[in-house]
Amino acid sequence: MRLYYLDQVRAIAIVMVVMIHAISYTNGISEALFTVVQQLTLSVAVPIFFLVDGYLFCLGKSPDQRTERSFKLKANFKRLVIPWISFTVIYTFCRYIFEVLGVVEANVINVAGLYELFMKMLGGVYSSQLYFLLSLFIVRLAVTSIERLYNFSSGLLLLFAVSLAIAYSVFNTELSVIRLTPFGIDALQNSLWGVSFFMLGMFLGLATFEIKRLMPVVTAVFLCSAYGVYQWNTDFIGLMFQYSYMLFLFIGFMHIPKINWLASLGKNTMGIYLLHSPVLLKLLAVVFGALGLKGISGFAALSLLTLATSWIAAGILVRLPQGKAILGSR
């Protein structure tokens, strides 16, 4: 039985991801609007995907752990690494074509040696959103490989999630984080960031109590921390806001009846995530710029059109030979 509330919360997350990228391509955006959109989307969009994946990870556990572990690793490779490789190559080639045609000014590829080109591809320089796929694979690989993790109690998982979140926040702000890739976004570094959200999802999946009962408490913490971010915006309050906001959306959708179009959107998040940026969004932004669309109306229109176009494109691609493999679809 498919859990429609997970599809719906993922749908909200993918809308946020598209908004994050679309606002950077929109002209005439005020600093205040940019800050608000970033605060409401960037803080939870990708973490929601980690959270939902951790939740599903626990729900899908099998008594035959060794067989299940081997199966999951193969499935994870096909679902995450194959699309990451495919679209990294595709978007790097597109970047090269754009540079040859003079569509983009910076000659990022033409001046790079093979090593630098490889490291930039690894760091997602030509396809910034793809880091998530490799990061999630690393998290799944680590969690699946540690046999004792299957025996963790929900309370211990929650303790680990909170500890990791605080430790990473301190480590990332107070110390110099070692980057394996000197360019772009480091997938390993982001897996260390995402594992706390994944473990929080595991905690929710293993919870022996009715999760819905947490809604009043989560709502109160979310509203108080939102006010705190507006007034003081300290690191601790920011963490409280991020986690309570994420839980507010996750648990909130457990209370909401199924919305067919939203659930359908949530089933296609992988395709939309892979296709919406950078090429499609860049082309649409050029058209919007030529038409003079800017400001909040231009941002809203660009976000909606990018979402709809990538949704349609994903539906077409999945029907083509090898389309499912490229998109990591089951």
From TrEMBL:
- Show where the Acyltransferase domain sits: 4-314
Topology of the protein relative to the lipid bilayer: Multi-pass membrane protein
Q: Which is one Gene Ontology cellular component term of this protein?
A: plasma membrane
- Keyword Acyltransferase found: yes
GO MF, one term, reads:
O-acetyltransferase activity
Q: Which Pfam families match?
A: Acyl_transf_3
- Localization, UniProt: Cell membrane
Q: Which residues cross the membrane?
A: 12-34, 40-59, 80-98, 118-142, 149-171, 191-209, 214-230, 236-253, 273-293, 299-320
Key words of the record: Acyltransferase, Cell membrane, Membrane, Transferase, Transmembrane, Transmembrane helix
- Known InterPro entries for this protein? Acyl_transf_3_dom
One annotated GO biological process: enterobacterial common antigen biosynthetic process
* Family per record: Belongs to the acyltransferase 3 family.
Protein name, UniProt field: Surface polysaccharide O-acyltransferase-like enzyme
Its taxonomic placement starts with:
Bacteria, Pseudomonadati, Pseudomonadota, Gammaproteobacteria, Oceanospirillales
